[in-house]
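Summary for the funding panel

The consortium committed to producing paired sequence-structure records for every protein in the target list. Below we show the first two records in order, beginning with the earlier of the two.
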Amino acid sequence: QVQLVESGGGLVQPGGSLTLSCAASGGIGAMGWYRQAPGKPRELVAGITRGGNTNYADSVKGRFTISRDNAKNTVYLQMNSLKPEDTAVYYCNTVPARHSSWGQGTQVTVSS
């Protein structure tokens, strides 16, 4: 079972940027970044195939960029022009998500 470890979250002011990383313990296929804000369901915000095809939720399109390094089994999420509504715990997982692969996530807080 591949284990996933997210990192890179933190506190950032509105308009700022952060880059999240997801390190996998083994080879991975299609991957995604998900987020869960307080009181809201977890949602998929960006996905990427092993070949590099990407898709984004409308709420982040044009601001977030997902990428991957297959040699390092790592997936990234570059987040620009952050908004307070981007505040959430961010997780990576396969697409579709595997229940057993959810990690601890990394907290992103956008606040002045």
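The next record, for a separate protein in the list, is shown here:
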Amino acid sequence: QARLVESGGGLVQAGGSLRLSCAASGLTFRLYGMGWFRQGPGKEREFVASISYSGASTNYADSVKGRFTISRDNAKNTVYLQMNSLKPEDTAVYYCGRYNTPGFMAGASMTGNFGSWGQGTQVTVSS
């Protein structure tokens, strides 16, 4: 059974940076696309970024383009989210998810296409 564990969250001032990690186990990691999502207070979970199983293709929400970078290390079964130029509106619990089926990702920004959610890591950006 797939297990995802996020880490790297914290409190940072606006303009600062954080790097989130998501360690995967219980799955053949290199076969699955992965995604980062976030859920702010009183909001629904929303797409942040996703990456194909090979790492060759990435997708970003418009709100984070140019500031966040998703990457993966298939040898370490880990996906990362580098977050730069953070804003108070980035405050949320960040979750990583595994695309539901191996191989090609269609609908790579749709929450319903991902599962095996981790417990999340809190990111708080102060103004």
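Regarding this second record: The longest strand covers residues 18-25. The CA atoms of residues 74 and 96 lie 15 Å apart.
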